[in-house]
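Hello K.,

You asked for the raw outputs rather than the summary table, so here they are, unedited. I folded two proteins back to back in the same session to keep the settings identical. This is the first:
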Amino acid sequence: MNNHPQQPSNRSEDRQNLLLLLKDAQRRSGYLSDQLMRELAESVGVTCSEIYGVGTFYSFLSTRPQGRNIIRACKSLPCCLKDSHLVISSIEGAIGIRAGEITPDGRFSFELVNCIGACDSAPAILVNNDLYTELTPRKISQILKEYD
């Protein structure tokens, strides 16, 4: 017989930490599946639409499978003014997919995102958590070679 009372879940605290819970769930599962979001909504005591709203609002969360390496190209104004469209075209040419797609071998996902916080060194991309700045089309193929 268990003499230790079970600690109740603090749903209010879970709700306040929803973004952290979603990030952790994505880290474990690779992406936020419909099933995972339903389970999380139930455990936290919020609606599925609230979970989905948070899960789709942030560009670093994904509701679909991703490649092993995620390329995020900044599309904000400072990068655009520094010819980010040339960098984006170079990425598409180097990996053979467009933004929003995954390479057939699962090696890369490619996404266009708003500001990644490197406006002073535009144009910039993130590959996984690695920041690359002051990019030119020539630099892209060399950068991508570093990733399996």
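The second followed immediately with the same parameters:
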Amino acid sequence: MTELTITDARLLDAGAIGNILSKTNDQMPWLPRVHSAAEEIRYAGDMIEAGWVRVAKRDGRVVGFIARWEADVHALYVLPDAQDAGVGTALIENAKAECDALSLWSYEANSSATRFYGLRGFIQTDRTDGSTNDAGLPDIRFEWTRDGR
């Protein structure tokens, strides 16, 4: 397997990031589609322009991304055919190297994400009924701190 590189996203990566969002969301039948593919690309472009996005590339192909503003992780996605190959771990570890704490929300129905974050030192700190998120699904707040508190 070739080396994985993590770099700041460029605006030209918006299409690849939108594609990752679409393909990953398509793998979750419990997740309602609330945005079109075009809206996902526009959202990716907005996050890139804000300076929030780092991408993971293998063989020059964007295979995953993380969108983070300071300690708040807004998105962590990996292409379905690149999952379970260390991409998500590399992205979250890269963010940990830059921060003393990280926090994020994940849908309760996303059991693989719950397991992923738990294995990487995140703890569950809050839950909601989903009334405040776009999908209307119950979600979980996760937090990680360098000192484990």
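The beta strands are 4-8, 53-58, 61-69, 72-78, 101-107, 123-128, 139-145.

Happy to rerun anything if the numbers look odd on your end.

Regards,
P.
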